[in-house]
Design a protein that fits this description.
The protein is α+β, with helices and mostly antiparallel strands. It is built from eleven helices and seven strands. This is Putative PaaX family transcriptional regulator.
Length: 285
């Protein structure tokens, strides 16, 4: 009998991807979208002031900082009596992946070659507590779930979060992964798409976001800062729920054009938001 494959990290899952809208996600949006690529450490007091403007309480902000540090995304240094925080190499990869993903939401993706990555993931009952974490990673990487434990994605090389989640959860021995094309046996490509993703619901979400954010009319730097980070929350959520299907699979679906409109708002709000951040640094460092 051949030995089973070792499963590193069993029982020690990789850090969870922060849920958009939480204090932890907001902190990462600030350091990723406003602070980065500057490597200048930011004082705790600045984060407290900035995130309070967005409705987060001081205990929630301090907990978010502690969790991001525990995940290895930020590290601290002491400057006199002040504690300052900067992105680690691991944190930089995380936020750069997020920013790149957001900026690609409007890409029509016209170069798909017809191949799918197929995963069959079985989560034992005794590990059902990690199911949501694994499924979230799969969706973040663009996978859909057309049948039972079967997950499919047209993105062959977009699986870093999925790999980390499956490995960290100790599921290597209950996962199959392979690449191939659909044939005439079983579901058609159109049926796979219809079962794996609800593009009508996703289009409604995009339309609601367009209506909400295009009605905003921020007039101050502080209002632009808040509007940008509220938009960032929604864009991060779209990274999870929008599979970014190739045009060959999505046809006349209008999501890509809607994403382009949201990214245009992000672009024009960015400058005033950065000015407000600079003022916060002056007032609270």
């Amino acid at each position: 009998m051949s030995p089973s494959r070792s499963e590193p990290g069993r029982g020690r899952s990789a850090p969870a991807i922060p849920t958009p809208g939480t204090a932890q996600a907001t902190l990462l949006n600030i350091v990723g979208d406003i602070v980065h690529p500057s490597r200048v450490p930011v004082a705790t007091s600045v984060f407290l002031a900035a995130m309070a403007e967005l409705g987060h309480t001081e205990p929630a902000i301090r907990q978010a900082i502690a969790r991001c540090a525990a995940a290895g995304w930020i590290s601290k240094e002491r400057v006199g009596r002040s504690t300052r925080w900067a992105l680690t190499a691991r944190g930089i990869r995380l936020v750069e992946d997020g920013v790149a993903g957001v900026e690609q939401l409007s890409d029509p993706h016209t170069d798909w070659d017809g191949r799918w990555r197929i995963l069959v993931v079985t989560i034992p009952n005794e590990q059902r507590s990690i199911r949501d974490r694994v499924y979230r990673a799969l969706r973040w990487d663009g996978f859909g779930n057309p049948l039972g434990s079967v997950w499919v994605s047209p993105h062959l090389n977009r699986q870093r979060r999925t790999t980390a989640a499956i490995t960290g959860a100790g599921l290597l021995n209950s996962t199959l992964s392979f690449v191939g094309t659909a044939d005439d046996l079983g579901l058609s490509v159109g049926e796979i798409v219809d079962r794996a993703w609800n593009l009508d619901d996703l289009e409604s979400i995009y339309n609601t976001l367009i209506e909400r954010f295009e009605r905003m009319a921020p007039t101050t730097d502080a209002a632009h800062f808040e509007a940008l980070l509220r938009l960032d929350e929604e864009l991060q959520n779209l990274l999870v729920i929008d599979p970014h299907l190739p045009r060959a699979l999505s046809g006349a679906w209008t999501g890509r054009q809607s994403a382009e409109r949201l990214l245009h708002l992000r672009s024009i709000w960015h400058g005033p938001a950065e000015r407000h951040w600079a003022q916060l640094l002056i007032e609270h460092s």
